[in-house]
Amino acid sequence: MNIVRSLSLGIAAATALVVTASAGTLDDVKARGMLNCGSSGQLPGFSLPDAQGIWMGFDVDYCRAVAAAIFNDPTKVKFVALSSKDRFTALQSGDIDVLSRNTTWTSSRDTQLGLNFTAINYFDGQGFIVRKSIKVNSALELNDAAVCVQQGTTTELNLTDYFRANKMRVKVVAFATLDESLKAYDTGRCDSYTTDASQLYSVRLKLAKPDDHVVLPEIISKEPLGPLVRHGDDQWFDIIKWVHFALVNAEEFNITKANVDEQVKSDNPEIKRLLGTEGNYGEQLGLTKDWVVRIVKGVGNYGEVFDRNLGQGSPLKIARGINALWTKGGLQYAPPVR
Amino acid sequence: MGAATPIAYVRSRPAERRRPPVSARGPFAWLRQNLFSTPFNAVLTIVAMMALAWLVPPVIRFLLIDAVWVGADREACLAGPDGREVGACWPFVRERIFYFIYGSYPLGERWRVDLFFALFAFGAGWLLWLEAPRRTLGAAYFFVVLPIASFILLSGWPAVGLARVDTALWGGLLVTVVVAAVGIVLSLPLGIVLALGRRSKMPIVKFFSVAFIEFVRGVPLITVLFMASVMLPLFVPPAWSPDKLMRALVGVTVFSAAYMAEVVRAGLAAIPRGQFEAAQALGLSYGRMMRLIVLPQALRITIPNIVNSTVALFKDTTLVFFVGIFDFLRTIEVARADPKWATPVTSATGYAFAALFYFVCCWSMSLYARRLERRLSAGQGR
Predict the structure, then answer these.
(1) Do residues A139 and A286 both lie within one domain?
(2) Cβ-based contacts under 8 A for chains A and B
(3) Does residue B378 surpass a pLDDT of 90?
(4) How many domains is chain A built from?
């Protein structure tokens, strides 16, 4: 682990030289005419090509929003498919401008890799799915349960930690792949299956009878997800961070893809500042006055992005939960534009 | 004449009747000769039959009988309320088939990929059909015209009105064909050069050939690909670094060239010294000796091995999967994650489809090679 860490530090240091030698990331992206965005390409709801091969998903829409803000064209993104192993290297080496790939914000990742997390766009956490027939309403009732899990992940560690902390016993049934562990759960070898809550919903659809299963309310770990950028370019860092805030603010002021043209005429000073009819807040970021209008026209507001990819408008039907706006009891909160 | 001398018969009574010979024709004879010739073979036959009876019906049931043929989304492929077993979910493959062929290639530009497939099939047919007219012209087309035309066609050339298409958008069958074709077409000449280099008497040439072959063969392909796709950009500034697909193509070519070199070297080693000496006695230069006398014989001997390497390479192209390139297998892998089609049988259907595809491709390659071998060794068949 130490070797890996010092190697990646060395790599980060070496690439910092190359990277700082070039112009700012924003200028590079503009010169290229294309945003290079690292994502998974294999994660339902977050990033997955559709039947036409067009990338769709929550993480994907964040990159499209950035492209919309810069080019006024959400399609000017080149997606690079990255595994969880090579995602950081790709960002460090400059292969991609932004990493929007379902990545948990942790202290070591933030400090040791030469990378910065910009904002939390999805509050995820590990959850449980059980059969309705066993009539369990809380994870705390799972004492002595057999729980299926994927091997060698932090998921496995969280699971044992949680049961130990609550003085319960658990039989961990671990498998190398998601498919195997899921099959074991489906055929009844385990009472429950655990992984990140955002995954539980897509996993549930793969079961023989999805309606016979329910996701329990307990979330046993903190998995804040968000996009990352390289160290050393604060303007770019600000842009990615504020694209997220713009999406959240747009939802808060009920500015949608459909009504953005009317909202531009609004008298509300906060909306005027957000949409650039007053002040020059977009230009301060290095973008244009109408940057938020471009974003919302391109992908919609935060709520629309969520609904289309993960929520009621998608097959996954994930509830907003703690990802609701702060005004609705959730955690999504954005600083004001002023 | 006097009294007739008695004729001495050798045999005083007719020979005992033998049973008619065991029929040498017909289905029973065939069975006896091929399947039950000895008790051991009989046991093997029975075991094999049992294995087939155990394996084949479930496969057929899954792929055909229980399979779902029409449907719009996952609902169609779920087990009904009656608990009926559901087999392969073919509507999933049907909806995604264009993704499996073109990947993310822009919709409006896909005719370019179709044209590429047509040009490629035409060239391959011309070259592989042994009775085809003007095969030297065919070779020139396949090895010179086709690569250039394909490159312009697929990646675009704005000057002639073809929009640029980034290789990140290429995918599916297109990528598999491109990687396999480039690997196979480039690795053979490279391999021949390396093999000749390894047998060369010039020490530097020999050293580099040996070092290259041994180094590349000592490293797994996946490592070569990782090096090419992850490490290379760290040493080369982003502006200069070749694109991802190009890196993988170089990796695959280098790797298969090293294996091809050893295959060709084995063929060269099998040519008797007399052939070299005779060629030299005729006053042929090194180049003509190799081209006219040695290589034609050496390559004929190695055809089975070349095909073996080719089939292996074709399947190895799936390893580009791990460096984020969307080859045929990866497009299936991605599609099966689609929640629209998420069912317990979706993954199995995708993999079954991939298995059928790779089997048909590899099997036809080896069928062709067998024919070619038979034809080229006609002179030895006495």
Answers:
(1) no
(2) 108
(3) no
(4) 2
How far apart (Å, rounded) are the C-alpha atoms in residues B181 and B256?
12
Among the candidates A195, A221, A247, a domain finishes at A221
A273: in domain: yes
Question: DSSP character for B38?
Answer: S
Measured in residues, chain B has a length of: 382
Q: Is the ipTM, as predicted for this complex, more than 0.90?
A: no
CB atoms under 10 Å from CB of B137, counted, come to: 12
Name the residue ranges covered by the structural domains of chain B: 166-377
- Of A221, A249, A281, which one is at a domain's C-terminal end? A221
The one-letter amino acid code at B243 reads: D
In a domain, A240, yes or no: yes
| A11 and A42 both lie in a single domain | yes
Q: Kindly state whether A281 is in contact with chain B, defined as any CB-CB distance less than 8 angstroms.
A: no
pLDDT digits (tens, 9 = 90+) for A183-196: 899 999 999 999 99
Report in angstroms the alpha-carbon separations of A94 from A12, A104, B268: 10, 21, 46
CA B325 to chain centre: 20
pTM equals: 0.85
Same domain, A119 and A12: yes
Rounded Cα distance, A189 and B380, in Å:
62
Choice between A67 and B373, residue whose per-residue pLDDT is larger: A67
Same domain? For A108 and A230 the reply is: yes
Distance CA B177, CA A48 (A): 23
Strands A192-196 and A145-150: parallel
Topology of domain B166-377 in CATH is MetI-like fold (1.10.3720)
pLDDT digits (tens, 9 = 90+) for B73-110: 888 888 776 767 788 999 999 999 999 999 999 999 99
Q: What is the layout of strands, in order, in the sheet containing A98-99?
A: A77-81, A35-39, A98-99, A228-230, A115-117
User: Out of A15, A94, A315, whose CB is closest to B340?
Assistant: A315
The answer to whether residues A235 and A116 belong to one domain is yes
Residue A67 and residue A60: Cα distance in Å, rounded? 11
Whether residue A336 lies inside any domain: the answer is no
**Is there a single domain that holds both residue A79 and residue A196?**
no
Q: How confident is the model at residue B226 (pLDDT cuts 50, 70, 90)?
A: confident
Instruction: Read off the amino acid at residue A263.
Output: Q
A337 belongs to a structural domain = no
Cα dist from B258 to A245, B210, B372, whole Å: 53, 10, 24
Q: Name the DSSP letter for residue B144.
A: I
Residue A315 sits at the chain B interface (C-beta within 8 Å): yes
**Which residue from B237, B322, B337 is facing A48, i.e. has the nearest CB?**
B337
Strands A77-81 and A35-39 turn out to be parallel
DSSP string, A288-333: -TTHHHHHHHHH--HHHHHHHHTSTTSSS----GGGSBGGGTSSB-
CATH label of the domain that carries residue A263:
3.40.190.10
Q: Is B333 on the interface with A (CB under 8 A)?
A: yes
Out of A82, A92, A208, closest to residue B344 by CB? A208
In which order are the strands placed within the sheet that holds A170-175?
Answer: A170-175, A145-150, A192-196, A126-131, A213-215
For residues B296 and A338, give the distance between their C-alpha atoms in angstroms, rounded to a whole number.
Answer: 79
A252 and A119: one domain?
A: yes
Note down the domain range covering A95: 2-123+224-328
Closest residue by Cα to residue A55 from B178, B103, B102, B110: B103
SS3 A230: strand
User: In this structure, what is the dihedral angle of CA atoms A243, A244, A250, A252, given to the nearest 10 degrees?
Assistant: -160
